[in-house]
């Protein structure tokens, strides 16, 4: 069949004859000479075997011949002819004919592209032709067009449509205000997010250059988890409040640094044993991982349950709930004793996914152990070990619920505190070891610690008119950073943990507080000493504030506080001082951190700065002097104390049966009303006739700094209308505590 392609050239064949080859070479040399080139054509039969330099010479001469031929054939359009002849044109462009109309169209697109003032407009123009034309062809008309911009134009056409104009919404960056910051800061200092430490401090440096020393804390969760919970909380509880953005929240967490949770000593033993139990169960599963395909899933569910107890569970627990695991009244009722039982007014017909996950995971792990252990003796040991771990986990969960219920008592008292009532927190600080500014090694060992007791007194201050500012203000702010360290501490720690900040300027609860520090060179930390300290504090309060009539007390479960002698002596203190002690409440064991621990950290830091100035703190007198140095710690009165010798005969100790089971004591006219859990059940009334009230109060010899004026320090609590209530407990009937004689 005859070939119709007139330009077809058969491949070079040496058999065609030397004469024809010589004619072709001569013709090419003549053409090169006519084009002004002195180069000559050389023929090779093995181009692929040539050196790189030789190949470049062949490429150069071929390009010159082709370009010269294109110039002869098309004159000014030689470059386009070269492109069409030698470029690798995509199949999608094979049907495009570069005629005059196409060039005119592309010239218009190119001109519009060049005249566009923004990349957004250029992208819209480019999206008209980009889906149907290759990048290399577009670059002929729009030089400098990058692959990235070309791809962006194609994406625009596919996403919004060819040539579509996209209306962009301008996002206005608005500065945050103090209310948003205060709202988040109050959330991160709430007890379910962070734990106060009785030692150490952090330094915050303000933009003015003032440095503020704040007590050290440990956050129980990571930054991302804290922000996730906060945003969920704002969505559920404060729907009309706009929180800060995530980046701003991360910046605040980075600025307000807390200690990283690593190895801890002296922590809550419920949490410690619960954590060890989770680790122990995980190790038991890993030892049998090869025998079951469910081991990875069980470990993941176990981690999920552990994190739930450490974070969300404390937020889910409420006074009354349709979920049995979250209902304080249901969980804390003792149905064997009607005095400590209370019926719920609702059904427990709902369940919690996370609580169910904990229970089902533990049950499944127990079955996993039974299925994977074949030796009966080893199985008995493994099950006993697992059940011990399970008891520790359930004890931790129960401890969290009891602690939250006891904290509700404190929050209720602070919410209803009147102008003639005070709220006291009592705690012994860890003994202070005497230290000299320059101490030889021979005096370093065998020291006897200095005992010091902290009492934080809070009163309601309804006379203060609150404004929009949620932070403490002080007109006497000094530029001296050292003075700011001591005088800017106006936080009430966990006594204001439900002080979850005012979102807008509304009615707020205002409080004032004082801190009493009783320092002893030698004393027994027993009930007798506590009674003398409490008597001294109330006498001083009554002397400076005669309008105070009632007091509420809270402390931890140390034996000197949770003692029948202390509880009974409180009645005599009321009669002696004129301030009626209405209640004494104790936190759940291992769960009663309060402002005393925070002020212990502040005072110890103040003592260290005093010692660094070449002073000694070796006894109670020097401790008091150090505490009041540089104008002292704001609101703190330190006293050098000594318990007077009791020359009276040894008195019979008072006893209350099963006193360790009772955590709430209310003083009534006819007896002492006790509860196992706050406001659960009617309580058990112990008549005064069954208690030995004929006990004497030992005198306390105290000496302070002459001329020191102990003034109340103002702080602020939450807004009545727009507060952040972490425990979301709302009392159905707002009733005041009954007045008792």
Oligomer: single chain
What about the largest sheet? 11 strands, mixed
**Distance between termini?**
128 Å
Secondary structure tally, helices: 21
How large a portion of the residues is in β-strands, by DSSP E?
5-15%
Roughly what percent helix?
Answer: 40-55%
SS content category: alpha+beta
Low-confidence residue ranges:
89-95, 464-507, 717-741
Beta-strand segment tally: 13
Shape: elongated
Overall pLDDT: 80
Please give the radius of gyration in angstroms: 42 Å
Integer count of domains: 4
Protein architecture, described:
- The chain is of the alpha+beta class.
- It folds into 4 domains: 21-86, no CATH class; 91-147, no CATH class; 269-401, no CATH class; 416-654 and 692-719, no CATH class.
- The protein contains 21 helices and 13 strands.
- The strands form 2 sheets. Strands 3, 4, 5, 6, 7, 8, 9, 10, 11, 12 and 13 form an 11-stranded mixed sheet that branches. A two-stranded antiparallel ribbon has the order 1-2.
- 34% of the residues are buried.
- Residues 89-95, 464-507 and 717-741 have low confidence and may be disordered.
Short description:
The chain is of the alpha+beta class and 741 residues long.
Please render the helix and strand layout as text.
Blueprint: H1 18-34, H2 52-74, H3 78-86, H4 100-115, H5 119-129, H6 135-141, H7 147-160, H8 178-188, E1 194-205, E2 211-219, H9 223-237, H10 246-255, H11 269-287, H12 295-310, H13 312-316, H14 328-332, H15 353-372, H16 376-415, E3 421-428, E4 451-460, H17 481-487, E5 508-520, H18 527-544, E6 550-555, H19 564-577, E7 580-586, H20 595-611, H21 620-627, E8 636-643, E9 664-667, E10 671-675, E11 684-687, E12 700-703, E13 713-719
Helix pairs in contact: 2-3, 4-5, 5-7, 11-12, 11-16, 12-15, 15-16, 18-19
